[in-house]
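> tool_call: predict_assembly(chains=two)
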Amino acid sequence: MRASRPKVALAAVAVAALAVAGCAESDRDDSSGGSKKDTLVFGVAGDPKVLDPSFASDGESLRVARQVFETLVRPEEGGTKVTPGLAETWTPDAAGTTWTFKLRSGVKFHDGTEFNAEAVCKNFDRWYNAKGLMQSPDVTPYWQDVMGGFAKNESADLPPSLFKSCTAKDATTVDLAFTRVSSKIPAALMLPSFSMHSPTALEKYDASNVGGTAEDIKYPAYATAHPTGTGPFKFKSWDVANKTLTIERNEDYAGTKAKLKTLIYKTISDENARKQALRSGDIQGYDLVGPADVEPLKGEGFNVLTRPAFNILYLGINQKGNPKLADVKVRQAIAHALNRQALVDSKLPPGAKVADNFMPDTVEGWNGDVTKYNYDPAKAKALLAEAGATNLTLRFHYPTEVTRPYMPNPKDIFELLSADLKAVGINVQAIPLKWSPDYLNATTSGAKHDLHFLGWTGDYGDAYNFIGTMFDRKKDEWGFDNAALFAQFQDADTTADAAARTEKYKALNKAIMDFLPGVPVSHSPPAIVFGKDVTGVKASPLTDERFSTAEFKS
Amino acid sequence: MFRFIVRRLLQLIPTLFGLSLLLFIWLRRLPGGPETAILGERGTPEMRAQIRRNMGLDEPILVQYGRFVRRLIRLDLGTSTSTKRTVVTEFVERFPGTVELSITAMLIAIGVGIPLGYLAARRRGRMLDHLSVGGSLIGICIPVFFLAYVLKAIFAENLGWFPASGRQDPTLGATRITNFFVLDGIMTREWDAAADALWHLVLPAVALASIPLAIIVRITRASVLEVLNEDFVRTAEAKGLTESTVRRRHVLRNSMLPVVTSIGLLTGGLLSGAVLTETVFAFSGIGAFIYEAISQRDYPVLMGFILIIAVVYVLVNLLVDLSYSLIDPRVRVR
């Protein structure tokens, strides 16, 4: 009697399974996967791109860096003010170009290396002396954003460096010297890109050796597998195949140790899928909550935290697009035509506000005393008639397939704003484009657009980081050339005295709202959510939430 | 046999060149480029221009293509512009997930489809027949991603029977060897990890199986009906053979040829379904990564992945052709 084929096949599979079973070593440590109560799985929208924050500009890379690394100064918990980090105090000299930092003592990096003034200088010298591909704008974006250039610029496009030198006075005293006064210092040093790395690990894993060719940049091992900071968590593993990155408690942390033993970031790119994963218990928290989900999730008992709004959504007007837009009356007409309050009430999450400046009121230099453009369709029509622009047709670009903290639902926003414009007699030609890369290309370069909306989330609490990035020089996005305004920016940025500088930014905000290059629309508070039994995290406007205080209610 | 295989493999070369050239031109003609995706809303036109120069994107397309081909000959597929890791590394890490998912989906489609198609044919015109034909029509018409969403909403979100995302519970800290999670679990005897990986496969595999299952049911049914009317079946029955012998030896074996052909083609088609299924279930595979690469304009990843997939597709179909001769001795491979 022959065995029938299916049985033979089954037997073969069973034999094969037994044959491979145990033929490899398990490297699992039995402590993980034990109690779930000290392990938090947190859903994020994308994989981190790189583990060395010196090379990062994307939110997901910086999110991991914020728990693993520390900076000299850091934002206060839940705010934007500069407070002590690895430095206890920082004072400028009389000229305002050299800052003396007093460091905390007794701090060690994850690899046991001591943190001291010398380590600080090793870090700054590494960035400042970057060579070759490390000078590419996509490799060191934030260094270039804040400091401009390097010790030896290899490209004519790079400006001279703001950073000049670092001097270790003694173990806990370090001087950072700059080529000129800048309002960015010290606030910009809160950015995770200026995190302190272990000099030993930098050397061991060849951290500055950005290799490959310009079209094939290859990060060194340090940036892909060995980030070594002083933070409350240390890097454990990055499991690309499972889209998870694991960090664990740093048992030798100098401050208050983390309550969680393990923190796992799990990538779920779709917003709705993150919500479903939270509900099904796959994850115990996630970021970038859809505005429409805030109330339902609260109702179900999840801990939804609303971050203070630290962003701006604006309507961009390109004066090179339609020649009529170079007439300030037409721009004023557009501003008066928009019912921004209705937009905030109907389309933005609870807590959103209409914007009167191109920056939120939590930043020094915000000015409540600027020209305001209330909703007044009759006035808008009158202004258009005055400017001889009664039959205006404008190409209005809006992005698809994207949500940003400042614009949760671009299509809805577009529909409201374009209806407002049509109501005062402006013809709108709708041009929807995919956010990345089409929309960003079309609206920030060239002159084929008239209106678009875009926004900005602040990196740190500094006026220049908002209005300076938008209006301090000629840009294709706006298509105007206003030498007086550019000079005013230059003057404000190089004012050493903080109080005087704040006044100058107030004046700038007034000048901008008179010139009206675009219309500030709103500030939206983004939300982050945690499981019903997770407590201890305070929302931060800079998305600098501290997970070291997170814990499960028992 | 040997010559047949070699000839088929040699045919791959011109196919790949043609495909890569078309792909290359098409990708570069899409508006925007990786520089915008990399810099986001923070990029100035000058920064974007510099990155384009760095990446050699400012040169004529054919010069760029020439460079790509020169590297391809050395089997160098370059580096992802968004992750800065080599395309080969990205593929090796993600391919096992997609293979695991596709095999599971195909096993479901074959294991349910063939018996169902056979029974529908045997009970032609009865309730079961109408149900399977109607059901398969629905299966073909429902978009895979929609089915994936519905399955997830019901069985993961509301009932909580299955996980809603990923390939494995990350808190297990399972050992990675081949990145085939089920196999890794068996190899290391981490049985809980293997079972958990299987559990994660259920919903996405069912969603992905919907179209091949429907097609296999229909093809099997049609093919079995055809064979049932053949003279040799009547002869076998007349000889007094038992029904199960007739079924196995004569009907099923003879009706499998078109089914096997379709399985080969459907396996290739699974990849397009995998793009959306993986995205919905946050399942780390090549499908989800291609989806991301398109929005990032990650040229090297798109080129590399699609070319590798083309090679795999050709190899799968070659295996299918070879298996004909095992099923039907009348088909001779020369």
